[in-house]
Amino acid sequence: MYGNDAAAALGLRPVRRRHWGRWASAVIIVLLLAAVVRAFATGAIEWDVVGEYLTADMILEGLANTAVITAAAMLLGVLVGILIAVLRLSANPVANAVAAGYVWFFRGVPVLLQLLIWYNLALVFPSIGVPGLWEGSTVEVMTPFMATLLGLGLHQSAYTAEIVRGGILAVDRGQTEAALSLALPSGAVFGRIVLPQAMRVIIPPLGNEFISTLKTSSLAAVVTYGELLQSAQLVYYRNNRVIELLIVVAVWYLAVVSVLAIGQYAVERRYGRGFTPTRDASGPGVRGRARGGVRARKTMGSEA
Fold first, then answer.
1. Which of 27, 225, 235, 300 is most buried per CB count within 10 Å?
2. Structural contact between residues 186 and 89, judged by C-beta atoms closer than 8 angstroms
3. Sign for the pseudo-dihedral over CA of 173, 89, 264, 186
4. The whole model's pTM is what?
């Protein structure tokens, strides 16, 4: 006899376990959230000002600049990061050492400091260019946009390089060797076998880095680039509505991050097709096999 039959035979009945601590913690969390919401709602914040500037032209222009610099910095970071990742995987010790030093430097120096270094590069190099082809004043070349692009993009490339390298190393080397034994070109092996599997490992952290770069772009205000926070600062310097304008900035950041998170989830599902998540393999699948085993034992018992 099994389960309920055995319990009934012994005169026992199941008793639902009560999770008093779980319910108490849930009530406390709800009360704290309600208190925070009430404090903001009844405080000295003028919410009509928030609504007024949420779609103001200057704020929307700053939002557009934030989107442009984020996309450009991520593009630069991915392209340079892939190159650095390839060098890190190279058997050439010099190339490997140079790539490791690159990652060490750009990952170790704070982003804010990198932005300031690029913006003031004219102190070290008054002019930059290609000898014999083009040369220009560093002050004119290193605009706020260019300084922000290089600061965010090269900083991001160091992290992207490690993400890509980790994704490639996560692919079983035996698959690459098997493909090469079939006389497939190296490019086809990488593009059709290694990369699709590596993308499953690369996309989640790379998506998080995209979101991180979006938020880090607010540091560009120190080099006077007209992104979202800089635009809000120009407004509240005039009307002194600091908190209201910062709430506007927070709302737009949350909205854009939510859209990016949805896109990241869709891309993860696209590259995750055909692969069973670990929790499914150890969850329902195991329980299904367990139920099958019970049914088999019941059948054997009945036959006996």
1. 225
2. no
3. negative
4. 0.75
